Amino acid sequence: MTIVNSGVSTASYAVQVDFTDTSGKAVDSSFVGVQDLPAGDKAQPIAFSRAPADQTLLPVVVKALRY
């Protein structure tokens, strides 16, 4: 994912990513964050699932918080 600070001051971000199976059921959840991201900059944190690798999963951003 890409987090872009489009604000005018430094900010921090927290993002919850759910991993859903092919039926749409959430099977895992992960949290990623970026601290003190300068205005105009971007970061690309990686969310990982602990589900078995042979499972087809779709990452879905559920919540995002700028603080």
Structural overview:
The protein has 67 residues and is an all-beta fold. 0% of the residues lie in helices and 52% in strands. The chain contains no helices and five strands. The strands form two sheets. Strands 3-2-5 form a three-stranded antiparallel sheet, with no helix packed on it. A two-stranded antiparallel sheet has the order 1-4. A hairpin with a 5-residue loop joins strand 2 and strand 3. The chain is elongated.
- Which stretches are low in confidence, meaning pLDDT under 50 for 5 or more residues running? none
Could you give a short account of the major beta sheet? 3 strands, antiparallel
Physical arrangement of strands within the biggest beta sheet: 3-2-5
Structural class: mainly beta
Helix/strand order, N-terminal first:
EEEEE
Helix content: under 10%
Strand tally: 5
Total of DSSP H or I helical runs spanning 4+ residues: 0
Mean pLDDT: 96
Proportion of strand residues: over 45%
Net shape: elongated
Spatial gap, N to C terminus: 18 Å
The rounded Rg comes to 14 Å
Question: What is the quaternary state of this protein?
Answer: single chain
